[in-house]
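Recap from last week: sequence in, structure out.
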Amino acid sequence: MSKFSPEVERFIHQYVSPLTSLQSAVDLLAHHYGQSTDQRLSNLVASLQRSTVRLRQFGQLLTEHLQQEGEEIVVRVPRAWYWKDQHAAPSVDALPSASLGSGSAVLVGGAILDDLAALLHNAGWQVERVSSCAAGLDIARYRRPRLLVIAGTTADIEPALCAQIVHTDPETRGVVVALAIRDRSARSVTGIPYIDLQQPLLEQLHRLLSMHHQAGQNVPRVLLVDDELDIRVILSQQLTDAGFVVVTAPDATTALRLMHEQFFDLVILDRLLPDGDGLNVLRTIRSSGTTRLIPVMLVSAVSSLDEKVRSLQLGADDYVVKPCSAAELAARIRSILRRSERESSLNPISRLPGNTTIEQVIHERLLKQEPFAVGYIDLDNFKGYNDHYGFFKGDAVILHAARLLSEVVHWQGMPDDFLGHLGGDDFVLVSTLERAQQIAQAMIERFDATIPYFYAPEDRQRGYIVGHDRQGRPCRYPLLSVSIAIVPVMPSRYQQPYEIAMRAAIVKRQSKSVTGSCVIIDNEERG
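Predicted structure tokens:
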């Protein structure tokens, strides 16, 4: 005798019938396409198989707890939920070396890259090996190789910064660059791809080269945060096909780290994550000076009106109920990005908050009636560089400075510190006086260590470029440096942001009499 009433049995049947059809359809797909040479198709079929198995298991769990109470069918399950380990990532079958195509590569580093060099040689590539990042950069500028790989053992430039220069400089922006590592825990804040030398190299190279065409400057970058591996695999592929560059994260911790490592045009955030509530992640994003303006789309299986209203009140730009089609999601993303572009004051080069937001942040700090500091950062000799190398290279230097500042603020600052871009080569930092000094010193060290490599080798060795001043007379422009004027702010003295800016202009003029990079603190305000 069945333990279920006829009503419950009909309820189960309505669930099991379509699941059975789905299971059969997926089995047929797996039979015909599971061993396809199209790796993307094989991965999608594998994801469908795993998802249908999990649906069946979940259905069995539900049927064990179904009960009929009067006119209602209810499900009672324990309140304690647990998080299963993430499924292993879909494996990539052995690929032929011909899948890499042809090309040339520059490898920066010693014996650690021998296996990689041998693999590329066997694939028919032209491989040039050098020992220093500076040599790798110069070759990349003049020969434009398809691939540049930098080992972590180089000493002249920090490898991650060297890779960042390659990504920033218009002369090398088309080169695929990666860092070669043996220990993933050694990752620094870069957003640069890695090749793990302890993992199959051919698979990583194939993935790196096939994904590089997506990295165009005008392609929106989306961070997809979801604990479900199959959702990340399938949805990221669909969004990639729709014209987005997609980076995925399985949890809140990874998502927040990636947001400080890289710039994203939009974040798709799951409501329930293994290490926290998606709404708490949303609060963190909105409270941080570096992420507060990034649009966030919250995705949830909960469709209640109260939940939607609460999410929007906390700062979500949209709320999407699962399941949703990829076409709808892509349309919503584009709608948010259009609206964000109209409303945002982000600088188009650095993607840092612009004048309107800077003024708002300083005004809010003044209202708190608490001491703080404002740092004004600008580049020395920038006009000479811009005139000599052209505005594309000039924009690359500005972007490089913005990235260095963002990284330093991330490491040396606190979540409530703020970094903005006034325009041109001028930036603004809002922090405490102590942290502003630490950030300034760290910025100078990193800027001075890397900026020579934005020059041609002969200019770098000479230490200056030959140009003309505003009157057209020949002159020498030393290598770029950075001047930072810090104004300690006591709210009792300043009432409006423009008053602080006027004081900073006076302090900045003092820095122009100093040769090279410097930090000057307004001693008058300090008393």
